[in-house]
Amino acid sequence: MADARTTTLAAKPPGFLARALDSDVWASFTRSKLTMAAAAVTILFFAAALLAGLVSPQDPFNPAELELINSRLPPIWDAEGQRPFMLGTDDQGRDMLSAILYGLRISLLVGFMGVAFAATLGITLGLLAGYLGGVTDTLIMRIADVQLTFPAILIALLVDGVAKSVLGGHLDPATTLSVLVFSIGLSFWVQYARTVRGSVLVEKNKDYVAAARLIGLPAPVIMARHVLPNVLGPVLVIATINLALAIITEATLSFLGSGMPDTMPSLGTLIRIGNNYLFSGEWWIVAFPGIALALLVLAINLVGDWLRDALNPRLR
Q1: Count of domains in the chain?
Q2: pTM to 2 decimals?
Q3: Structural domain contains residue 34
Q4: Which of 9, 17, 56, 149 is the right S-S partner for 98, CB 3.0 to 4.6 Å?
Q5: Are 243 and 112 in contact (CB under 8 A)?
Q6: Could you give the residue ranges of the DSSP H alpha helices within the chain?
Q7: How far apart are CA 158 and CA 166, in angstroms?
Q8: CATH assignment at residue 121
Q9: Angle between helices 152-167 and 232-255 (to 10 degrees)
Q10: Which domain holds residue 130?
Q11: Per-residue model confidence as pLDDT tens digits over 155-189
Q12: By the 8 A CB rule, do 108 and 47 touch?
């Protein structure tokens, strides 16, 4: 009886965590010190954004906590610096560290939602184009080809301008955030659609898809349940890299005045505000948000580059 139990326990398959730690991907991750450092920085930024309400000295979005008498104070290591403003203050008396933490939360939120919208739209259209073929494939791919002729930032500016003309020039922060997500999503869906379409063209001719058709499963079920899980590898890589691009796009739109308002600034808005005071000597208002944005994008790009190589079977 004991032998049978021992055999059963020995035959039990390893769990997901054990398989992940024993995989080639994890081994590749632990061999790259640069990737581990980039992942640590990325996790640190994500944690700082999530815990901004707990670790920041003030709520920069609450006018009751702001005093104009504290505006444009230098960092604390400067002779004129004051506590608790470690990185100084901006023109409205906001603590720069608090503003960066809260702005980081908005930048990541817009980036994640924009990538999620682009991935959902692109994967859906890519599945339809690759699986159905014919007129559907031609129509979707020609639209994608036309969009590729325009830069992503130009499409985002166009969508933002149309939305403001339809909804009114002065939008509340929630509506502005939704417009940013929509414009960024429409700018990046083509990469997902083209990648998924190419993978579906290969997968739909395999035996498991033929077997699913043979037992009478409808096309939407076959695409969602059988084909989609086998094409998500490249999509994960694109999503990781596009997260950095989405954050940069949001920062660019905000810097140009088409993004988040001054009352609820993202990192791009903080950089735009600080740029007005750069030549008057208040360098910290633009420098620290710019450094935070550069480090965040660099870290995410390094993780995305590693993930692209780790999931490429030709490089294993």
Answers
A1: 1
A2: 0.85
A3: no
A4: 56
A5: yes
A6: 2-11, 16-21, 24-31, 33-50, 52-55, 96-132, 134-148, 152-167, 173-203, 207-214, 219-221, 232-255, 267-275, 284-310
A7: 12
A8: 1.10.3720.10
A9: 60
A10: 54-315
A11: 888 887 888 788 766 778 888 888 889 888 888 99
A12: no
